[in-house]
Predict the 3D structure of the following.
Amino acid sequence: MYIDTHAHLTFPEFELDLPEVIERAKKARVEAIINIALDDEAVKKSLQLSKDYPDYIFTGAGLHPHEASQWNDSTYEKFSSLAKEHKLIAIGETGLDYHYKLSPADLQKKVFRSFLQMAQELDLPAVIHSREAARDTIDIIREENKGKLKGVLHCFAGDMELGRAALEMGFYISFTNNITYPKADLIRAAAKEIPLDRIMIETDCPFLSPQVFRGQRNEPSYVVKVAEKIAEIKGSTVEDVALATTGNARRLFFPRGDRR
């Protein structure tokens, strides 16, 4: 069984056939999907999906660093209320993205710090996005960690300075289907180095389809391709990778085993 630890099922790409997408995921032995919502409308839709597919689709919520300017005085209260009602299983994604800098770096840092503080206050894992911002990401995680911070670096791009720092702090590292791309040598090298008991898998769908489906929409059933590639890299079996990564996801997102 697999858990897709990072999907965006509320994106327009899934409007026409989401039930079929979910059915394919179930047939592929995906036992749960963590849907990441990045604005108010997405949160509303994701929580409805959680009702429509109980014990199967779960919601994490945050602001992508591109949208850091959306943070306002009501943001904390909104997420806090949802978490206290047991409607969220994660805070994020949140983090830093200096590739496009659609929001100023200083504002991204401020919002990132706020979300890390929130995650600890709510005792929820943080889902962290870092692109071309490894050093600042490391510094902020270390500075904001009050001994309760837990989480995952999602869509890991292979920067092992960031990876090793995250492992030292007890974080998990999640790989997507870009691990299958011909030029992804750094990502594959990272997957070989990182212990299997610290790895999770995700699709980040509708983005980052596996190489065999490159150019098409990604979907949760394709998380199996991530597991297959990691098994190949580590000289392991797909079953062992599935067992380990699913166990890791359960420990981080469902620590009480209650699938809240």
Notes: The chain has a mean pLDDT of 96. The chain is about 40% helix and 15% strand.
